[in-house]
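Quick check before the chapter quiz. The format below is the same one you will see on the exam, so make sure you can read both the input and the output lines.
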Amino acid sequence: MSYLPYHHDWPLAMEARIGLRVHWFGRYAGFPEWSIEKSRLMGDMLCFFYVESESCWVVINGVRMVLQAGDLLVVRGGDEFAYGHDPKRPHVSLAVSLAVEYGGVVNELLHRDFKRRYSLKEPQAFVAEFEKVLFVMGSEGPYRDLAITGAILQWLTFVLQNLRPPMARTNLEARTAVDRILAAEAWAMNRLKQDITITAWSRAVALNPDYFARIFKRETGRRPMAWLNERRLQMAAQLLGNTRKTVAEVAEACGFNCPFYLSRIFKKQFGIAPQSYRQNHLQPCA
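Here is the expected output.
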């Protein structure tokens, strides 16, 4: 019998394991009352903010800048920002917040040394590429997610080819901290039912408990246990709205030792008791 090679004996033409997460992608503002109160960009995200028409201002990490039409602002994870414009001349902006997981890092873009602001040489081309994504996002069909992913990656390729940001050399330590906090979040999300201590949590990502608590708050804006309680309450809300588990069973499934404690902090978080929340949100059985 002659030997027939399996397909895995053939050399790969290419291989790319890319993960894409997008918080927002769209055209915004355009009305007098528009503004964004002081906020912090999530630590693993990178935001592109392009002024399509008129002008606006931004205060980023305490520094005020005026952005004109054609300016592209880059906001990195952890940056604080606030936006506003002249109500008499409202601007229009194109904004994106995304993360590209590639090569084992949570966001490859954060390893690039972007300038804070660019004045685009071909603004019409940028807008045209952006609108291609908006068109796909407005479409329907069984392959919509795949089409949107491809369109966003094509747009991002266009941006990177025009900006050509080099690999960063000075922020690797900071980005390593972000990666560890993201790993810590994933570790906790897989153990919400369990009793989680700061010591065990920080040990899971090889950090000192005090340092872990400090950088966790810096990157997420929440103390570790406050963040953990929020995730548990979100899970409790999902269970109350989609299952018929009792409040005691929900408490146990979400890592709360006492159902009365769950009821108290649930009402504090959502402004309504668990049983009332269930009555308003429970999905009917199919």
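If your answer matched, good. The longest helix spans residues 144-163.
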